[in-house]
Amino acid sequence: MGFGRAASSRAQPPMASSEPSWADIGRIWVPERFRCGASIASMSSLIHPARSSVIEEPLDPFSLVAEELSLIANRLRLMVDAEVPSLALAAKYFFKMGVEGKRFRPTVLLLMASALNISKPISASTGAPSSVSHKLRARQQCIAEIAEMIHVASLLHDDVLDDADKRRGIGSLNFVMGNKLAVLAGNFLLSRACIALASLNNTEVLTLIVTIIDNLITGEMMQMKSTSEQCNSMEYYMQKTYYKTASLFSNSCKSIAVLADQTEEVAELAYVYGQNLGLAYQLIDDVLDFTGTSASLGKGSLSDIRHGIVTAPILFAMEEFPQLRDVVKQGFHKPANVNVALDYLGKSRGIERAKELAAEHANRAIEAINSLPKTDTDEVLISRRALIDLTQRVVTRTQ
Amino acid sequence: MGFGRAASSRAQPPMASSEPSWADIGRIWVPERFRCGASIASMSSLIHPARSSVIEEPLDPFSLVAEELSLIANRLRLMVDAEVPSLALAAKYFFKMGVEGKRFRPTVLLLMASALNISKPISASTGAPSSVSHKLRARQQCIAEIAEMIHVASLLHDDVLDDADKRRGIGSLNFVMGNKLAVLAGNFLLSRACIALASLNNTEVLTLIVTIIDNLITGEMMQMKSTSEQCNSMEYYMQKTYYKTASLFSNSCKSIAVLADQTEEVAELAYVYGQNLGLAYQLIDDVLDFTGTSASLGKGSLSDIRHGIVTAPILFAMEEFPQLRDVVKQGFHKPANVNVALDYLGKSRGIERAKELAAEHANRAIEAINSLPKTDTDEVLISRRALIDLTQRVVTRTQ
């Protein structure tokens, strides 16, 4: 099986000869998996694959899978509606909000399924490749549904975890019902995800997906219970970010490859793509929490720092202005401290360096796609280009 | 494979020729599974198996598996302690409380494992039955751990769902942290349960256990969102009770049999035992909520009715005094309504009929044990007697 042009670098430890950077931190907290990541190349050299006929067509990653996305959205709504009518309200809340990234995860996973649609074995018994391929696609769609259910479940539970104090002004019954619904609806979605998972009957995929759920909890716990020292640690922040955001991308992308019976190498490339896409996504999210407006962010601007959550821009600013550590230590209950931190951030390269780190991870994600086995199939090439395009959108978005 | 003396009745629909009773309700809401339940026989005829040498020894079901129980408890504590230290508090809260039934589920499951320790195939390749048997036992212990984790997770989430209003007098941070910890600790346990489940690598068991989680949520939702008509329905109550309590027993008992590679018939008998034990357990719990004292119940007496939860004794009382429906419809926000309901209950046969229904289900559970394949092995016979003894304790307990 032939690999793309980045393949030769895969035998060496990534970045072994280059200067250490924060992107290297990734290797510390997910050491095994990170080893197969390709070395960093400049973005411009990566977004121009050889076949110009494919790249010159205008491309919208979301429209490539629009039909399947609506199929998946309908199935998810049906599941929620049919079983317990009261849960529909909670689920619809998140469907209606128009949150950025609402269909981002299923889009990535469906595109990954097409990007890996190579060397499909034809069933010897039935001699019906299209039916085999249809069955595989249905199983891969199931992963997209499961990932979305887990994502929405984590949003529902975050509502209880993060916003409980905001609701205290509301009447007692509503407050309690809000928590009840959020917890039960989250549990309900997780349980439905597990049932769907059981139906796939694949132990490796089961383990990968359950790892996502476990990581989400660990990440939330790390955020909730961090010591002052941990709050100042870039390594801790990256580990938490992997658990809370990137694990869902990495493990579900790998699941798509596992279901397709791809080699361990291809599965690891899918994992590395998801991992780095997820990290880049969250880093930009953290930047936008400072630079965006309330409307464009879809949540209150500066919401992280106001909740005492220290993210990459502030951590980088701390390196230039160590006195910022004391401000962070005091906490952000006082709005004055938020302003002090923002002053330091403005004077520092914090925002810039966080964006650079996001770009490094985006490059690693792109490199993983370019390291996939060679193919001449247009659909596969277009899907790979769409995954690269999505990655670029993630780091260049302004909302 | 030979079956016990109740086997002949299994071909007929249970209770087909007898008067309808509330025990029949069971067949409506879990129709498929209930079909293999044996007909009801009097308790006195069931608790005297033929082998007097076994039955005459004094027997304590809990001490039979004491060593394994402490092994399981240690493993569970280690899992909670090792991963996220902050969760230990939440988990220990439930370990410390000394709640009745704390080790009830693992006890039932370990005894079921021994009760089904029959016709074990010896590994042809290794010729080492003891090692095979040791491995099976370890897998069955894993089911006991998983069941306990799911049970404790549901207690932790119930804390958020039921007691949120009670905590409102406490400072904001504690309140929010209480909810946070309860939700996260519950999720953590569920996720650990799923990881343990994945390691068993058995799709049928996975589906059975995930069904428990799904049923727990559905049951909680049914309790939270019932209409006035549903509140007055015995069928609705029994269905909710199955989901909230009995499903854990039925599906985990069946899992024990599935892991042991028992026949579908034996697995169904294990299911029927768990199902009816669980129903009997909850019915008596609901009776004790009226008749017990606060101390002996481990929670405030009358707590169900004060939370507006209508259980079997009141439902039976309603049949004798239809005017009680109006009181239930008004709700129990006013303590006066609680007193009116208690007056009706006292005049009715509500408590008595709830106990009779519990006894009917206990008999069905005992019948299932007596219908298991014949054996001459003392350990197996003792374990079966212990399961019968446990069932009797469930319906005769006063706390």
Automatic annotation (TrEMBL), chains A, B:
Molecular functions per Gene Ontology: metal ion binding; prenyltransferase activity
Family stated for the protein in its record: Belongs to the FPP/GGPP synthase family.
Keywords: Isoprene biosynthesis, Magnesium, Metal-binding, Mitochondrion, Transferase
GO CC, one annotated term: mitochondrion
InterPro entries, per database record: Isoprenoid_synthase_dom_sf (IPR008949), Polyprenyl_synt (IPR000092), Polyprenyl_synt_CS (IPR033749)
Pfam families given in the database record: polyprenyl_synt
Name the UniProt record assigns to this protein: Uncharacterized protein
GO BP field: isoprenoid biosynthetic process; ubiquinone biosynthetic process
Cofactor(s) the record lists: Mg(2+)
Gene3D superfamilies for this protein: Farnesyl Diphosphate Synthase
Localization (cell): Mitochondrion
Region feature (Disordered): 1-20
Tree of life domain: Eukaryota
